[in-house]
Amino acid sequence: MTRQSRLWATVLALAAATSTVVAGAGPAGAAGPAPAGPAGSVAGATTHKITLVTGDVVRAQDDGRGGWTFGVEPAEFGSPVGYAQFTRKQGDRTDWYVIPNSAEPLVASGVIDQELFNITGLIRQEYDDARSDTVPLLVEYAEDRAAADAVLPEPAKRAAKVERTLPSARFAAVAEAKENAGDFFRGLTGNRAEKRSEKRSEATTLTGGPRKIWLNARFRASLDASAAQVGAPTAWKSGLTGKDVTVAVLDSGYDTAHPDLAGKVAVARDFTGTTVRDGRGHGTHVASIIAGSGAASGGKYRGVAPDARLAIGKVLDDQGRGQLDDILAAMEWAAGEAKAKVVTMSLGAYPTDGTDPASRMVNTLTEKYGALFVVAAGNDGMARGVTTPATADAALAVGSVDKSDQLSPFSNRGPRLGDNAVKPEIAAPGSDIVAARAAGTQVGEPVGESYTRLSGTSMASPHVAGAAAILAQQHPDWRADGLKAALVGSANPVARRGVSEVGAGRLDVARATSQPIRSTTSSVNAFLTWPERDAQRREITYHNSGSAPVTVDLDLKLADDKGQAPSERLAKLSAKTVTVPAGGTAKVTLTLTPRSGKPGLYGGVLTASTADGTTRVRTPISVHDETESHDVTVKLLDHDGKVPGRADVLAFNVDTGETTKWSGETMRLPAGRYNIIAVFPSPSAGGRLVQNMMAHPGFRLSRDSTVTFDARKAKKVSVTTDQPAARGGGHVVQLMSQNEKARSGWIFSDDPRFVEVYVYSPPGASEPSFSYASAARLEDPEVELYAEKPRRFEAYSWWARNSARLEGTQRWPMVHAGHGLPADLSRVDVRDKLVVLDLPGDTGFEELSRRVNDIKTRGGRAVALTNQQESAGPQGQSLALPTLEVSHTSGPLFSEAAKAGGAEASLTARGSSKYRYELVNPEAGRVPNNPAHQARTADLAAVTMAYHGGTAEKPPVSDAYFEGLGTLLGTFQTRRAVPHAERVEYFSPGTWRIGVSADYGPPDIVSTLRHRERLERGKPARISWNASVVGPALSGTTGGELGGEEHPWVWLRDREALDVTVPLLSDAAGHVRSADPDADKGSTSLSVEGQVVGVQNRPGRAVFPLSDRQARGQVRLATEMTRDQPWWRTSTKVSAAWVFTPNRAPGAPMPLLTVRYAPSVDLHNRTQGDREFTFPVTVSRQDGPTDIRAFELEVSYDDGTTWRPAAVARDGDAWKATVKHPASGFASLRAKAADMAGNTVEQTIIRAYQIGG
């Protein structure tokens, strides 16, 4: 098989409801709404290609409606495709993880960051292959490896570059070249190609210097009445303005000419490779909240600490994004070289448990320098959503409230992931904050030329940082812990909000600087382990800086997330009152007793206050009384009754949706119901791989338990048809758990000719949240390679990349030629033979090409490689002979056969398959008693697929997914179909989503036409793909580039931005498809009342700021696209321009008109020449029916150089257009339409269809 048509395992899919638009009747001459397209047409899919740190390649297909399918190609061809998958839900966002079996033990042991396998997270951070040719890593290394050349083991160095070292934290930023990612990973794990076997890696540590590999994550940028709201003016009256205190602002730089920052910046440094100039506007806004003078507003928009010194570190680019290693370096600079007392970071990445590199750096630098890091909690509005580095123990995490002290809806909430610690610890104003606007930036809502209004925890954090500067001026000897405890302890309570939302409450710098009593403890966190009964104790110390003793009453209030208080025995204070002597301290003990009531998580505040309320110290508290938990031990027996090696285990909690993964025997889990899945390989024999997939659905855990999986009880999975030639293709077996909260499971896939999968679950074990499924795409094999003599067997093989190809059947003598070096070739006769080579696994393409050339010169006919790690050559450069790669399971047998005297081999190769069977066998609740599935062609749904256009070099490829078990089932396998041809294909009856795109790279096409239809036995169907005219369409709705809630293609988002997605390459059947970043060039622009708002260099896709005032005017949206590719013959240039008045209702579609054509074309997208030609035309409006008052159409036969009018006649709600064709060439179409509301469109398609041959 080629890499392009290589097996892709369907790793997971999220089912999504398919929205349709119901067409209104409308009056005669009215345009209908944008049509839903043919029965089952759905939003076009976008495929994101992501190369993982392991070298495995994931193709993540987003259908724009929240539907996802993930296909995986293993780094090492011929390896079984085994992957764990699970979801992690954060608020409204669900992230999808795919972990290859080669990495699972390393992830489970904690030496590889799980975020390196967060597929949706990598796409969101623009680490997909279309936007990054490296995998950005942060390598944690041992102390003795500080030198850059010692960070990586030697084998890994050849595939990666050390870009920066951070010796104080023992981190190194490493760029792993994606094209060599497999070599890099093998170098890290010590699994060299020469040592490969079918047995999965059981390594749980890395070789050489690295201790752990992290994702070098991207971070993002997460005043009028606000200064008074936090009590700053009261502090100013006492002379506390932050004078002589340095506050570092790690953000997007600053406007060096802004009046409010004049004389404020003591030092500035860029860490992004640009300059300190703020091209985003975020950093300037943040800096002025801290120390702005308000000069441009007559003092109105003054900062919280107007006399503080600023140290500006630019770590975010002009799009508001930053790289982790840049941020780590800036943190060290700020606390060390810049000597900042306070460091504010209005940025974040993703929620963590506080052990990630950024959090650890905060803790390290805080301990070393005493600087207080004030960090935004994040703006996703999520519970358990506080992002790194706010999750650091030492960080002061800040949430947001509005001007009425109500929680801002965007503010992330706690508790912290993992240990449920208090985060955020404090809140501050972050909604609608007016502060300095950087010149030339459009972020936020401008307030005059010098200011802008922004909302976010990014705005709340600098309020706290300014307060910290004021407090540091008052107490210059205090370190970070003292500043943090004083700020948290003096916070004002926020009504009806708990500790997980606002910590101790809203910032009150006036109280922080004036009251004499403070706690030295900023928060209390406790985890009470089940079944321990021994109490834990925490001491809270109060300090009195006043000249008289102070007596405070102690009041502890705790509650769970439902507002229910715990048993009084859970948390008890040693005293109800305590007197703190003047200049001294007093302690109170908090005793926490486990198993004293209902277990769970309880949060609240310990308040120490005087009777008159003038003094009040608040200490936020989180207590997790663990629920009942037990050990689960998984025992395995192989087919021979012996204990195999390590298994990969997933335990899915049926009630909570939480997934626990481990690679070993025993794990501790909360009592409850679980679906337990274990997978492990068995030793292979005869070149066939054996995989075992075991499950115990609905296992009840109420005590320490052992689950035994015996492979001798398992049954073999098979899928066959009554067409014996359809024996190749791909076969997937999955064991999956899912509920409304989460999804997890294990998937295994490979060619059905060379793999055996055995499945088992205990008799009677069943659980509705569990499912089994097998899916197969069966075809005649692309490559059939047999050793014919001395004994006949089939070898698992595929075409090497850049190989010359054959079709048909060949039979040759074969000979083994060692490594293919001249000395090896001189010892054998290769003439007219298939030459077998055992190459060193890291042989590069250039060296391989030389050896193949040498074999051709000596008369060889073809080459088979039995130990080669695939490496691609330059585009357009081919190997001189047909060259096959043989899997590492078949390779040793094939190599031995070639060494025997008189050896012969046969090869049958096909460019495309005569057959296509898409088969599924789902079973809800359990593993079936008989997993063998035999399908009869007569019982299947027959579909005639018409593949229009394409070329032999770039033919169409197709995938298919069955809607079942609440998800999408399929193989994600693609294989080339014959271009401009038809084929009858067979499907299991049911509802299918079928997609067609151009063959994979180069260029790598990611946009897919997609169709949804219920297919039935005995009801033949026909689906047409890529028929002309291809052009703009706005059918139905979309879910955006990373799924999410349904919304129109072009709409007003959040009342402040015009979100534009125009599928410019939708086919005549109504299948929508967007322009492709690798193949297409163009732009999208927006103007309001003749003034340009913005231009973005992406055809059909943009987001433009659009204020409410602008949305009341006349808007012009324009987009253009050019596809200059030898395999794309029609619709080579597409452009459209709309003039309209926006619909200002939230989430409403814009009133955009589109013109659609459906000429009668053949499979080459050609019409007959030298005659008159009539075809239908429709005009639709995205938001519903409208009366069309004017329509005209022009045609060009010289690619738009000259135009002539076409005759158009009304045909009901549509038109018929008539043109006179020349003998040959192409027809281009230019249309103009206007409706009664004044909305217009001008749409041009160059080479809309071909004329003649």
Characterize the structure shown.
The protein has 1253 residues and is mainly beta. Among the domains are: 296 residues, Peptidase S8/S53 domain (Rossmann fold, 3-Layer(aba) Sandwich), CATH 3.40.50.200; 98 residues, Immunoglobulin-like; 127 residues, Glucose Oxidase, domain 1 (3-Layer(bba) Sandwich), CATH 3.50.30. Strand 4 and strand 5 form a beta hairpin. It is globular. The two termini are 33 Å apart.
Write a short abstract of this structure:
Pfam families: Peptidase_S8. With 1253 residues, the protein is mainly beta.
Descriptive key words:
single chain; 1253 residues; mainly beta; Rossmann fold; Immunoglobulin-like; nine-stranded mixed β-sheet; 16 helices; 79 strands; 11% helix; 40% strand
Oligomer state of the chains in this structure: single chain
- Work out the helix count: 16
Shape verdict = globular
Q: So, CATH architecture of the domain at 220-515?
A: 3-Layer(aba) Sandwich
Beta percentage is 35-45%
| Cα separation of the termini | 33 Å
How many extended strands?
A: 79
Largest sheet: 14 strands, mixed
Q: What is the radius of gyration?
A: 33 Å
Keywords: Hydrolase, Protease, Serine protease, Signal
Protein name: Serine protease, subtilisin family
Family: Belongs to the peptidase S8 family.
Active site: 251, 282, 458
